[in-house]
Amino acid sequence: MKKKLVLGFFLSLFAMVLVACGGSKTAKETETTTEAKKEEVVSGASEKSYTDPKELKDSYDVVVIGSGGAGMAAAISAKDAGADVAILEKMPVIGGNTSKSSAGMNASETKFQKAQGIEDKNDLFYEETLKGGKGTNDPELLRYFVDNSASAIDWLDSMGITLDNITTTGGMSVTRTHRPTDGSAVGRYLVDGLYANVTERKIPTFVNADVTELTDKDGSVTGVKVKIAGKEKTVSAKSVVLATGGFGANMDMVTKFKPELKGYVSTNQEGSTGDGIALAESEGAATVDLDQIQIHPSVEQKTAYLITEAVRGEGAILVNSKGERFVNELETRDNVSAAINGLDPNYAYVVFDNALRGRVKAINQYVEKGLVVEAKTIEDLAKAIDIDGATLKTTLDTWNKAVADKSDTAFGRKTGMDNALSEAPYYAIKVSPGIHHTMGGLKINTNTEVLNKEGKAIPGLYAAGEVTGGIHGQNRIGGNAVADIIIFGRQAGNQSAAHAK
Ligand code: ADP
What we know:
By secondary structure, this protein is of the alpha+beta class. It folds into two domains: 53-292 and 439-500, FAD/NAD(P)-binding domain; 297-434, Alpha-Beta Complex (Flavocytochrome C3, Chain A, domain 1). 36% of the residues lie in helices and 21% in strands. The chain is built from 18 helices and 21 strands. Strands 3, 4, 8, 9, 10, 11, 20 and 21 form an eight-stranded mixed β-sheet that branches. The longest helix is centred in the last third of the chain and has 21 residues, at 480-500. Adenosine-5'-diphosphate is lined by residues 65-71, 88-91, 96-98, 209-211, 243-245, 271-272, 275, 465-466, 485. Keywords: FAD, Flavoprotein, Oxidoreductase, Signal. Pfam families: FAD_binding_2 (PF00890). Its cofactor is FAD. InterPro entries: FAD-dep_OxRdtase_2_FAD-bd, FAD-oxidoreductase_2, FAD/NAD-bd_sf, Flavocytochrome_c, Succ_DH/fumarate_Rdtase_cat_sf.
């Protein structure tokens, strides 16, 4: 059977599987329509069924806290390694920030790259990530990350999650950002595919389950305290995996570590409050790089909606309020953000054409949300966004010549130059930087064990994904967070299951 069909088959099996899990309710049954709508906006996740709180047992081999990509990858691999696993998610829907991720998953030396004649090397992926992170990335974590990226792509593919449409984001010389076949945003596809696998394995998933404390005995973590269905319950576990995401929605924490971000919008879902950091710190965990908070250059400010870097990766340009380019659009995120912040006024327009819209399916979401200005000609577009038409026309003509010549003499851009911007209608989205990703977090080793201040593993405590720090250094490359959650989430599942034996 084809993989796509397998995935479709899993999705259609949801109802049956959940009945088998016992007593589950749909989100629709448990929430009012208004709340459900709000949750949809908050998380971007599609409607799903979850396990009834009554099913929560007193004890598991592995408890996974958080249901984003890292949590679900951990739960699946722990289950496949023979562990009895449960997922606890504090929000009313699963998916976390993962649901909102758009660009793709970076990986090198993959079978899909090879099939498409793309030459890449793990060492190059390593070097470019290190350069992007200003040389401050944890070298051991980074080595593990690049060396296990291709097998993570294979692992997803084996579960019906196929990322074979490859594009570019800022800070890479080779096409290595893997997306769903139709070029759509990676997040929802990934969350749906992982959750299909979670339910297929009958891994119970509890939502509205807020973990407030870790329990311990003789220096080992022994379980969690969770608020669920109006009660607090202690659940013991041989291993606990923290997959609670970052703290980009916790403005007190953000401004504590980076005061200059006061007043910025945040692209984060509201559950990204840094709980995992506090939980682990209470067990003596060390942290790294908490002041390294990434702002993303292209965020629509009224909705805090992120405009994926893949739009630029597929060929869009950025223009200032005069209609002129001002930066290599595929510089790293920190540099592009700084360039926009240096403008007066400090906003830019992402400008693209109809052909590009066809290549980046996420744009349909932006159109649906009313974020996109559309016009039949470049002059009309300029008028609609209050820019001088002749200037914008000259900018596009110059850019299209640079694409044809494969030489951007103005800003030295080298990627995302395969297609001219010449097919009407034309589009523009107004953007400025927004808080996006917390690169710092818990210190872990390559076994995803959480380390204490002496560099020793805290027995029974594992962490993966945005809650951890070190992998990205001082600037994360777009597409590396999805790679991080899958590669280290998978490892956390294996290691936590082994520890539970
Ligand atoms: P990652 O990308 O690292 O997987 P995500 O943001 O996608 O991170 O997912 C993290 C999930 O963890 C979110 O859905 C968030 O609501 C959940 N979470 C955060 N804190 C807690 C907590 N204290 N108890 C249960 N779930 C939590």
